[in-house]
Amino acid sequence: MGYTKITVEQRDHILLMGLNRPEKRNAFDIEMYVELAEAYGELHRNNELRCGVLFAHGGHFTAGLELDKWATVLQNGWIDIPEEAIDPLGVDEDNRCSKPVVMALRGRCYTIGFELLLAQDIRVAASDARIALLEVKRGIYPAGGGTVRLFQEVGWGNAMRYLLTGDEITADEALRMGLVQQVTEPGAELEAAIELARKIAKAAPLGVMAALKSARFARTEGDRAALARLIPNLLPLMQSEDVKEGIISFLERREANFKGK
């Protein structure tokens, strides 16, 4: 499809998805969100793609939703996205992108930006990042997964500290609490995220997706349910070409060349 509010670029096995309304501080209108969902659908379906990188053009990740354009949508539930698209917030666990996504952020990362951060798997922040859930200051609350995921990430007290006040979190504080995994100088966050994505893309694709699926299942369904599925879900992988390549490369003491088969 043709993208106008985001950029999409494939680099080897990585899909770069960039928010592209820098003149609006990458504030989300409806079209931008739908385009991002379509990009996630492309990442999910394309067997050549193994990892995504979500970032933003300009000095800010996003100032949040353009509330005047979203008011009617939020009053009626949520937007309808195309059938082949995947909601980047990942609220529907049965329709999540099966590939991992690394997020790079700098500057303001407000409301939906924060909830997108919580929905991604690894996060890299520039030192100038300012992250906030401002919804309680607008008369609403985070309805894109923030109320569920934030305390899972940082603990109850830390989550309520920011969820109920709308205060900003600095990059250093986000690193301390585990919201982000790396802090860089402003402008270096994207390359750091791409480097992490490259490492993921070199690993066995089927193994990466299985590990991600197992971890997500444990988070939503609990430890016991996830533990019960470990061996049953491993058995099909043992018949894959990637496992054979992994064993052979180990014996030959070389880097494996995985095909995702």
Describe this structure in words.
The chain is of the alpha/beta class and 261 residues long. The radius of gyration is 19 Å and the shape is globular. The chain has helices at 30-45, 67-75, 112-119, 146-154, 156-163, 171-177, 189-202, 205-221, 223-237, 241-252; strands at residues 6-11, 14-19, 51-56, 101-105, 108-110, 122-126, 130-132, 169-170, 182-184. It contains 10 helices and 9 strands. Helix 3 (112-119) crosses helix 4 (146-154). Strands 1-2-3-4-6-9 form a 6-stranded mixed beta sheet, with helices on both faces. Helix content is 44%, strand content 15%. Helix 2 links the parallel strand 3 and strand 4 (101-105).
List the helices and strands and how they pair.
Elements: E1 6-11, E2 14-19, H1 30-45, E3 51-56, H2 67-75, E4 101-105, E5 108-110, H3 112-119, E6 122-126, E7 130-132, H4 146-154, H5 156-163, E8 169-170, H6 171-177, E9 182-184, H7 189-202, H8 205-221, H9 223-237, H10 241-252
Parallel strand pairs: 2-3, 3-4, 4-6, 5-7, 6-9
Antiparallel strand pairs: 1-2, 7-8
Helix pairs in contact: 3-4, 4-5, 8-9
Fraction of residues in helices?
A: 40-55%
Q: How big is the Rg? A: 19 Å
Rounded mean pLDDT score = 94
Distance between the termini: 27 Å
Strand order of the largest sheet: 1-2-3-4-6-9
Poorly predicted regions are none
Q: Beta-sheet strand percentage?
A: 5-15%
Structural class: alpha/beta
Characterize the biggest β-sheet.
6 strands, mixed
Care to count the β-strands?
Answer: 9
Count of separate DSSP helical elements:
10
Strand/helix succession: EEHEHEEHEEHHEHEHHHH
Query: What overall form do the CA principal axes indicate?
Result: globular
